[in-house]
What does this fold into?
Amino acid sequence: MTGLRSWLLRRLLLGAGQTAAVVLLVFALTEALPGDAAVALAGDQPDPARIAALREAMHLDRPAAERFGAWAAGLLHGDLGSSLVSGRPVSSYLADGFGPTLLLAALTLLLLVPLAGGLGVLAARYEGRLVDRLISAVTLAVYAVPEFAFGVLLVTVVALHLGWLPPTAVGYGGELLAHPAVLVLPVLVLLSRPVCSLARLVRAGMIDALAAPYIAHARRYGIPGVRIRYAHALPNALAPAAQQLARTVDWLLCGVIVVEALFVIPGLGTVLMNAVAERDVPVLQGLAVVFAGTAVVLNLAADTVVFRCTPRAGVVA
Amino acid sequence: MGEAHAVTANTENETARIQDLRVEVGGRALVDGVSLRLAPGRITALIGASGSGKTTTGRALLHEYPPGATVTGEVRVPDALVGYVPQDPATVLNPARPVAALLQDIARTQVRHLPRRARRPAVRERVLRALARARIPDGDTLLHRYPHQLSGGQQQRMVLAQALLTGAGTLVADEPTTGQDALTKQQIARQLAAVARQGIAVLLLSHDLEVVRSLADEVHVLCAGRIVESGPPEQLWRSPRHSWTRALLTRTEPAEPAEPAGIAAPPRDTVLQVRGLTARHGTSPVLHVPELRLPPGCSAVMGRSGSGKTTLARCLAGLHRTYDGQVLLDGAVLPRSLRDRTREQLAAVQYVFQDARAAFDAHRPVLDQVARSAIRLRHRPRPQATADAERTLRSLGLAGDLVRRTPAELSGGELQRAALARALLARPRVLICDEITSGLDTVTRRSLLTHLDGLLRADPDLSLVLITHGRDTAALATDLAVLDAGRLVEQGPADRLRTAPRHALTAALLQTAPDPRSLPDGPVPHR
It folds into this structure.
């Protein structure tokens, strides 16, 4: 197991480097955007003198390298800095946005894993028969629909025409959990495509595994079918699905901007949108750190699962 | 055929019986009127060339047939339990689970009658007992390993333990010794003898005649799906009645050392030379060869599985590049890696792999793939290259329409000859053959060896390096090198090593026949 441990350590160091690179890139890209926080704050009738004053107040007149250096030094002490626009600490922005995002992600995951796994195993069990063709056709069709289109469709039909559920989370503020009806449509939209891609991956892996000689061998010795499917075949089908699941979780935690905007949920995606609009560089950088860190940790977790499921493959740093 | 081959007169004393079995796929009979009886404690062997219907007959006991097969006749297994040890045990071990997983599940199906609390210790006890019966000494620690962490021998014993754990009265062992070295073969033979002593009927499917002769109580010779002859081994070997049996039993290796294959009185200079070679996998050294000279003609590198034979061959061919030292061809140093070798150097050293099927692209005709080496390595235009390829293939007995098909339609022996042809089209100076005969049955192997001998005679400039653990393959060689655990233990002219080996392993590899009852050539005693 020392091999695994040193591999983990190497991967974590590499991940820290990747996070730093992402942060540097985000900083460079926001610098490259036309306009800055001062211009955004100055409003519709920009007065050059006012912009200059704002710039000086925000220290935007200092060279980019110096500003980045000061911010990076703060980061090493755990200080993400504070917003250029409101002066609030960046960590409070992140904390506010993280609650709703985490809630949505957790709910989606809770439903996603059993649903996708079950559908995949079911389709593989009846490979080529009606059940399989039905599952395969429906998952392919749903996967082809972009989430904004699916979201708009759901809002129009279920919320506006039928009036069964509220169309957006406007007015519910931070206490989404107290109003579960608000969450149904967003979670449905978030589920739609990941369920399809995961179910198809599990199905493909299960079909391969069920056709393998070691499964025939287990059947030969009278092992019950359920046990064969879930205890002997499924572990072989998990490796590709685990990678895809990590990508999905990453997307759920860092990038459901469209869904948050559509349903007006005050999560991290919304914080990101506002920060870009206001050229609020410290908030953007704080988000970049969080997103990059999440991506590194999740991929590492997925690779560890894959390592467990395909012990033969060994580890590649 | 269809006549019953009575093994024992006593009907009660049998664990399984096959009566007039006929298995037909697409109008072609794979097995045609085979009858067998398996009795407890007896080893029944089915011998015959690849494709003679051995595996189909063995699998019939498990009620498993090829897809689309029409089956007539009767297969009766009173206790419905048959254990199976396939040719490659690794394929039936789940790569994603520790080996304990299936063993425990098998045991769990047997303890359902016990109260819930007693089940877990009962499962454990049964698993450990099965491991002991399969002669796995430190089974407790091996249980938590994944299949790839076990050696080939341990894998085979684990699969055997599964069979014993089911309580099966019958065991089908499919080519258990194929591709193993002489010493491992002995261990497997002893293992099977021990299983039979536990009162289990063993059906041994094999083309390994030495093992069959020393182990079996009853031998059936299969030819094209029919049993052409049956009887106790000593009778069969002494007076084979059927011409096919005679062809099969003809000793492969000549009684006296082979006439020097190929060139008459070759000058004792060196084609390939290895100097101070230490090869590593990762950082750990796996092979150390201070000095090795391979003369023109045919040399063989021998050793047990895992002794470093293939690593040496891969160093010579430029496929393994983490080594110190030098490999010289005709006195000139060869670059370590294939990538650094010139086209001429690439063409000069050609490699034929053990698994011919894996060495061909499954989707292109064999002829195109064979012609490719002449196009790539000798810049022959395509029409000439194809003509060359056809000529070479024909000289190896592969003619006409066959070579225009995809690899799937060729047999293992045919593909191996096609792989030889592909290597020969590069006009190599040295042809390295890595265990190219070990997966083949006796008849096919002998024909391939005849072809190799013919190559040497036809082209005095060609040298062969045979990587092998089989002495019948090594019989072709005029010069031998023996490796053990990554060290070169002996090297010299084949005659000298055969008559006066200095190292025990050389003697073992060149002379051992499996003799589980330590009675090498005597009559087989009855139990």
